[in-house]
Description:
Elements: E1 2-5, E2 8-11, H1 22-25, H2 29-32, H3 45-49, H4 57-74, E3 75-78, E4 87-90, H5 99-102, H6 106-118, H7 133-152, H8 169-176, H9 202-206
Antiparallel strand pairs: 1-2, 3-4
Amino acid sequence: MYRIIEGKVYGVLTDYDVASWTKSLAGDHTKALQQTIGTLPYMAVGLLRGTDPLHLYRHDMESFFYVMVILATRYEIQAPRKGEAGGVRVVRGELPVQQWFDESSCEKLACIKEDFLLGHHLFIPSPTFEDFRGWLLELRKIFRLGFWAQRMEEKSSFDDETWGGHVHYSALIDSVRNIKGKLKDLVIRYDPQSPALPISTGAAQAGL
């Protein structure tokens, strides 16, 4: 969803009605497993496999990445013209990641997504989303580093909540700073570097 305030468009991500405090779930994995429900094409690899019984903030970041890849590669936003309405239109008949929607096995889909994150599969944004290309590649790099860190480090000392310190809110925002083109002056409303608005790990701890 989005809001228009004084002529400026502000995107809003909200799903707080189904949020839970992770502290209340950490000791009850039976209850935590209820969090793994979702729409398969957008689910994080660890949740698809069932290896991550507790829903963490990094899972939402991974899902957000998948949503952006799908939007950027399939859709084009057309500005209104005289006598015509603008809006969103499909620019491709089949998605570059069509397998995410065709595969019904959670385990097989997890393998497909892991290959997408760790490999070098090309995804070409539509003209509208071309400026997002660098950002999306940077996000994929963040998840790739998290995957490899999880495999290489000792499990007892590994920070699973942030995948070894690679996947967290600041990493998401820092990659936004590199967006070029028309979005280079993008305003970051909740900036971890802003002294007027410090960002804590509270959102991650709340599972938001």
